[in-house]
Each structure stands twice: as structure tokens, then as C-alpha cells.
Amino acid sequence: MTKDKFKAALKSFGLPRLIIAGFLLLLLIMAPFVGADLPTQISNIINRFSWNGILVLAMVPMVHSGCGLNFGLPLGIISGLLGATLSIEFGFTGPLSFLAAVVIATPFALILGALYGWLLNKIKGGEMMIATYVGFSSVSLMCMMWLILPYHSPNMVWGLSGKGLRTTISLEGYYIGALAKIGQINIGAISIPTGTLLFFALLAFAIWAFLHTKTGTAMTAVGSNPAFARAAGINVDKIRMLSVIMSTWLAAIGILVYEQGFGFIQLYMAPFYMALPAVSAILIGGASVNKATIMNVIVGTILFQGIVTMTPTVMNNMIHMDMSEVIRIIASMGMILFALTRKTEAAK
Amino acid sequence: MNKNTNKKASPNLFNLVQRFSVPLMFILICAVCIPLSGLSANMLINEIVTRMGRNAFLILSLLIPIMAGMGLNFGMTLGAMAAEIALIFVSDWQIVGIPGMVLAAFISIPISVLLGIFCGKILNEAKGREMITSYIMSFFINGIYQLVVLYLMGSVIPIKHGSIKLPRGYGIRNTVSLLSMRQKLDNLLAIQVAGVKIPVLTFIIIALLCLFIVWFSKTKLGQDMRAVGQDMEVARDAGINVERTRIISIVMSTVLAGFGMIIYLQNMGNIATYSAHSQIGMFCIAALLVGGASVDRASIGNVFLGVILFHTMFIVAPKAGAAITGDSMIGEYFRVFVSYAVITLALVMYETNKRRAKSAAGQQLQAAQDAEEAAGKEKA
Amino acid sequence: MKNKRQLLFRVGAILIILAICAVMFVIGRGHTVYFDNKETSYNGQTIEPFYKVTVTVGNQKPSKLSKGDRGMADIMGQKLTMTLEITDKEGDQPHAHKVSMSVPYNMDGIMINIPALMQGLPQDAYMSEFIIETPDTGSTDEEIVTDEFDMGGDM
User: Fold this and answer.
1) Which chains touch B (3 or more CB pairs under 8 A)?
2) % of residues, chain C, pLDDT over 70
3) Beta-carbon neighbour count of residue A43 at 10 Å?
4) pTM (2 decimals)?
5) Which of A7, A306, B107, B308 is spaced 20 to 30 A from A84 at the CA atom?
6) What is the CATH number of domain B2-360?
7) What ipTM was predicted for this assembly?
């Protein structure tokens, strides 16, 4: 009897998730023995969590409205990049440039999100594949645009030709650490980016609160049972559109927060595969194709970033082979594969 | 039945243009870009013939899963990886020339079959979202591939030659030379026609595959696949083992993709160990769609038209881009963008058509019911 | 009955494939053959090189070897057939020889000393394995570029 229960619990938790959590636990236990510096590791995990949290949070609205995992995240990232580059182009400096970037990115995110939402409403049932390719198309279109658009700021364009944006742009003098430095706490080797964490908490709380409003519950209803939602008089298309716009905007803000932590803007092909780590992170955190909570976001991001930071050091110290890249690919893709094969969620 | 006759009765121009919108668009792009690129006709034709020999086999491998209603098989990358592993072994054993290719083909079969069965089983668990799943599958297996090639080869799997192995003692170098096989297949029986080199043997092999596909679609298994592609439930009721049929279609596609990759790589003359397979799926699928195929319908004609149009664009775009803007990168980004845009467009068209067909079927059902009800009332 | 026949058929097919593979292993084995026209010694006996030797293997470009030169050719399979045009001393008429021999399977690079070969000495006198030094690219390790599947280095 207990065995059956255990089996059922295992099934709902999912084997890949169990393996990944176990793997991380093993890494944590191994770390002190192989001479890895634990405080630095923990500090790294917290920092990376603060960079990436909002990108993962961007998955939540679309999952709730039944649009599936947002493989089209790069579209939102592009809006964020437009905000970032335009903010610098217009001459904003220091932490103010972060605010400017957020303000400028917002209209792009809203417009692109609305278009994207309109498209996804036309192709209900095939969202994830098309989202992937919408992301790819937009990134490759923007590759041309970064070259063509008339940017002039000498800090961003190629020095020689004087036109076309560079592949990486340093944020030194702009919004590097704009959030992280607010109330930063340093205890020994551990540094905690309080501002970024608070900003994430604020957005996460906002999403949580939104999901408990009337529109928010309608969104969940649309996701779990569109026919029922329609019968209840909910405008399904409108709600779905709203969720897509929210996801896109969150992605735009998410990439800006990422950049302020990372210190660079990465253009051209960089946003290409950014959706995949975010997707796998939320899935590792316990989400599924049509169910995701804020808790999934937090747990998933910590687990994913834990693996990303811990594997290279522990592996290197243990067997002198840096297999972290490969392990990350196998773990995250395995997780996505697992989520895609859950039958109960395949029902439309 | 009713719907079919309706369709045949009104083959209006609009529908026709819509169906062939992608090839038409490409003909336009090519017509604009070819003069701008400044390439001579001879050079262009030479390039297209080369690329036809290089890619046609790979693209043909996509046809069978489409027949089985599983959409575009992004998992063809799996076959490509199997072929690369086989070729790495064969070059380490120093088996050269055409025997080397034949041996590599045979070695790739078991790897492809295993990967294909795994992929097919997973896709059976993810019915209705085969494409995204096969797409993620290609990433997943790429992780395994990297594990094998980068860490296990040389340490667990014996690799002898230092020209293949990394100096650190395990793992394979970024490029593995296939100089001993380079264009051996293409050059055997090759003929020159007006300055254009035609790799006759490669084309014969491609033609044989075409014949095989035509023959296969008429066999019992081929018919079963079509039935499964049409409607899984109906096929199941008719006593077809749906799951097995679907797995077979993926296995066949993977094995054929492996053969295709060997042909592709012998033409290139080296293996880019960690990147050769990554773009293959995308470009092959884009080429097939450019040829006028859709997610649920593709023919051999689509393959050849697609190769010609897509690769013409591919050859001329960077040159034309450089001529217009003075920057060759723009052209390169342009062709990548066009590839992705074509796939996006085809996917959107497929999904909207599917929805339209669904709602039309629903309406028909409703109308039939209404009529029945009315008839029932009249009787009463 | 039917199952048995099917099984038999499958085993047969696999055997045929394995046989083809085995044949490919033999006929497709590539070797690089190096020809030396150099002084060598065998059992204390010194063998002088020829004035000039032209070695032709298949339709590959003939290598013309003066005293002390080395040439090379790629061959496929276990049999080496070559045509030698030998000029013994300056001013002599060259005389042609057709030489055929089987080569050891396990050697990638095979060194053949032509003067020793023409003396009719045993195989170990004229044939030796040539081991290519691994081309060292200078750096201790090569940067592995995993390209497109790379997930952007980070999130």
C-alpha cells in the first residue's frame, strides 16, 4: 500500500525532477569534500538567481492562460534590448539609464506582445512550436536591424566603421548594478544583491496578487478549461492576449535586470536560446505545461542556477573534467522532454 | 468525401496562389537577388547542382514522418549525429573512399535505429505536439552526443589517431578531416556538361531513394502510415497498430537522415564535430517548405523545387546584401531570417488551416444534425 | 512456421550486412606509403641508393626521387601495385619494373626503401612502419566550440 503511494508520489513528482534535485543535493554534499569554496558558491547562486528570476517569472502568465511554455521569450528580450540600447543612445547614464530603459522597453513589449498574442490566438493548439519560431525569426530579423538602425553612441557602435552595434556592450557608466547595489549586504565572501531580490519579490508579488484578482482567476479558468470559461462569459481571446503581453513585458524587464547584474548587453544571436534555460528552470521547479506557481519559479531558478554554478567547480575538482555544459544540456532538455510527454496535460 | 469534391469543383486562383505563396515569394526574391549578386549563370548552376547532390537525400528523409502525420521531423538531427559518430570511427580505423562510406552507413544504422525508437516512443507520449517535442529531442540527444564524443571517445571508447583526438587525450577535435573520402562518391561517374560538374552516382542514389519512397507509399505499411496520418482513431479501429507504425516512420526517417548526412559530409570533406548537425534540421525543413510543402503534405517534387529555390537564395543573398548595403553580414543574417520566417509562416498556415477545417467539419456535423432533426420532426 | 522463417530471414540479413562490413574493412583500409631512395644497411651490408627513381601508383601523380629523396602515395586495400622507373647511374637508360606486394593491415604509414626492395631482400629489410608525429597545434588544448546548440553561455 505504502509502496503504491510512494510510486504515485514519485510519478507526480517526476523522475527527471527527482534526479536533478538529488544531483544538486549530491553536489552540495560533495562540495566541501572536494575543496570547493561553499560561501562563494552560495553567493554565486543567490546572485544568479537575482539575475534570472524575472526571466523565469515571465513564463507564468502564459502557462496560466493555457498558451503553454513561452518558447517565444526572445521576442520580449528583444523589446528589452531595444529599451537598453535606446536608453544609452538618448544619453541617459548611471542608474537613471535603467529606469529609462524600462520606460522605453515597455511600449515595444506591449506592441510586440499584442501582435504575438494575436498570432497565438489564431493558432490555438500549436502555440509552443510557433512561439519557438516567432522567437527565432524575431532574433534573426533584429540581427539585421542592429546593423542597419542609425545608432551613433560611440560606446555602442563598432569603432572602425562607426555604425552597426557591437555584439557586447559594456554597461560600465550606465546601469551596471543599478538594482544590485541598492542596500547590498556583504558578509564575508557572500554578497547579497538586496535591491535586485526586492525588485524580483515585488514583481513576483504583483503577479501573485494579479492571479488572485477577477481577471487573474479568469486567466486560470481559460487555461484549465477554455470551453467552460467561454460558457462562463469570459472573452478567451482577450485574456490570452493579456497573458501574452504580460509574459512579453516581463521578459523585457527580465533581460534588463539580467544585464544590470551581468554588466553587459548581448546583442545579435545571444537571445536565441535564452528561452530554453528559463523554460527548463520553471519545469525543474515543479511546473508543468499548464500549471505554474510563483513557488515553482523560485524553487526552479534556485535549482537550475545551483546546478549551473556548482557543477563546474565540483566536477573539475573531483574528476578534472569539466562536464558541466553537457550535464546542463542533458538535465534541462530532459526536463522539458519529460514535461512535454505528460499525457494529462496534453488534453486541450 | 463531400469536402473533396467541393475542393475539386472550385480550384480558384486565390487558393492556388495561397498554396504556392512561399515558392512564389522565393522566386521573386531570387529574381531580385540574382542580378544584384553578379554571379555568372555557370557558377550559379554549378553551385545549385552541387548543393542538390549534397542536400536532396537529407531532405527526402523528412517525407516519411509527414506521411505518418507526425509533421516536420526536427529529430532528423539524430540521424545526422549517428552518421557523424560512424564517420569518426571509420576515419579512426582508416577505412577510406567509398568502402569507408558504405561501412559508415552500416555502422550508423544501429545507432540511428536505437535513437529513432527512443524518439518515436517519446513522440507517442506527446501526440499532438510532435514537432516541439522532436525539436527539444534534438537538443537532448545533442547533449548525449557531446557527452559521448567529447568525454567518452578516447577515454572509454578507443580512438587511436592523434589527428582526430584532442591533445588532452580524450574527446574529438573540432574538425575531423574526411580528406580520404572527400567527394569520392560525387567524382565517381561524374560528368561535365557545359562546364557544370554533375555527380551522376550521387544523383542515381537520390533517384533510388525517390523510387523507394514511391514504392513504399504503396506498400501495406505505407498505406497504414497514411491512414495513421489521416486519423489515428480511425486507423486504430481498422486494426492498425498506430504506435508501432509511428515509431517505424521515425526510425526510417532517422536512418535515411544518417545516410543523407554521410553523403552531405563526403561532399564537404570534413566534419565540424560539434556543429555540423545543429543547423541541418532547420535548413532541410526550410528548403522543403520553400518547395511548397506543408506540415501535412509533402511530395518529392517539393524537395527538388525547394533545394533549387532555397539554395539559390542561400548563394546569392550574401552577395546581393553586400551589393545593396556594402555589408555582407546583412545578407547572411537575411538568409537566416528568411529560413526561420518561412518555417514560421508554414507552421502558422498549417495551424490556421487545421482550425478552419475543424470548425468547417463542426459546422457540417451541426448542419447534418439539424437536417436529421428536421427530418425526424417531419416524420413525427 | 512463419515466425521461424522471418527469424531466419532476419539473421540472414544481419549476416550479409556483417559480411559486407568485413569486406569493407579489408578493401577500404587506407594506407599512406612512403618511398625512400636512401642509403640503408642490412646485416652489415650497405645498399646504395639509385641515381633517380620515378614511382607511380595508380593514377596518382608520379613522385620523382633523386638520391636521398622521399615520396608518398595513398593506397586503398591490402595490395600495393607500383611502377618503378629506375635510373641506376647518371646517363644510364631508365629501366621499368612493375612491383606488387601485399601490405600489413595494421600499419597506417608504410615506409618502403626502394634500393633494398630491388635487391630482393626480405620484407623486414625494406619495409618499416612510419609513425606520424601528432601535429601539435601549439597550444596544449584546443578550444571546443559547441556552436549553435550552445545555450548562450548563461541564461
Assistant:
1) A, C
2) 85
3) 20
4) 0.88
5) A306
6) 1.10.3470
7) 0.87
